[in-house]
Amino acid sequence: MTTTQRRTQQERRDQAEAALLAAAAELVVEQGVRSLTLARVGERAGYSRGIVTHHFGGKQALVERLARATQAGFVPGLGDLPPGPDRLVRLIDGYLGRLARLDVFNRAFLLLWAEAATQPDLAPIFRERDDAFRADLREDIEAGIADGAVDPGLKPDDAAIAIVGQLRGIALQMLVDPGGVDVDQVRRSVTGYWRRVLAPE
């Protein structure tokens, strides 16, 4: 098999996987996680159920892949910043700014995250995603404490839990009542709040 043939096959696989993930996200947004069957995902994407099974194996793996795909890169431009309060505040500000333009993948992630509280098969996936999110936040806070840029009395674990809860809670309110949340005002208030909380006394 030539390099071109292999690349073409890989491109077809990537294209099919992207279409299947998009179909899964659309179904979650439109009808909830209970509507997510391999057959419906395949039908929505224009493929057979067998293709969905071939790519993901089962519903659990599909949801896990969807969760990872939707969370990655939610706030761009942070990868080159060193850990610390500047990166943390930019994450908070960027996260809230992004809420005004959520795409179907972001909406699906938030809905799945909310359903994880009552769906035992979803809980491990989103527990792992939240653990990773909190770990990044703790790293920023700990780095800031170490170099004197963050109040040493701030507890990294507690702050990380509070930030994740605040950001996700605001995002869910946006989904439920888009007109009831002034995103720009909330963004300024919350970002300013964390700047003050992080600053050493």
Task: Describe what you observe in this structure.
The protein is mostly helical and 201 residues long. It folds into two domains: 3-65, Arc Repressor Mutant, subunit A (Orthogonal Bundle), CATH 1.10.10.60; 73-198, Tetracycline Repressor, domain 2. It has nine helices and no strands. It has helices spanning 3-31, 38-45, 49-56, 59-71, 85-98, 104-115, 123-146, 156-176, 183-198. The model has no long low-confidence stretch (mean pLDDT 89).
Task: Describe, in short, the structure shown.
This protein has helices at residues 3-31, 38-45, 49-56, 59-71, 85-98, 104-115, 123-146, 156-176, 183-198. The chain has 201 residues and is mainly alpha-helical.
Strand % is under 5%
What is the CA-CA span between the terminal residues?
65 Å
Low-confidence stretches: none
Largest sheet: none
Helix content: over 70%
When the domains are counted, the total is 2
* Average pLDDT number: 89
CATH class of the largest domain: Mainly Alpha
Task: Give the tally of β-strands.
Answer: 0
Shape: elongated
What count of helical segments does DSSP give? 9
How large is the radius of gyration?
19 Å
Topology as a string of helices (H) and strands (E): HHHHHHHHH
Write the CATH architecture name of the largest domain.
Answer: Orthogonal Bundle
**How does the helix and strand content classify structurally?**
mainly alpha
Q: Please, what is the CATH homologous superfamily of the largest domain? A: Tetracycline Repressor, domain 2
The CATH topology of the largest domain is given as Tetracycline Repressor, domain 2
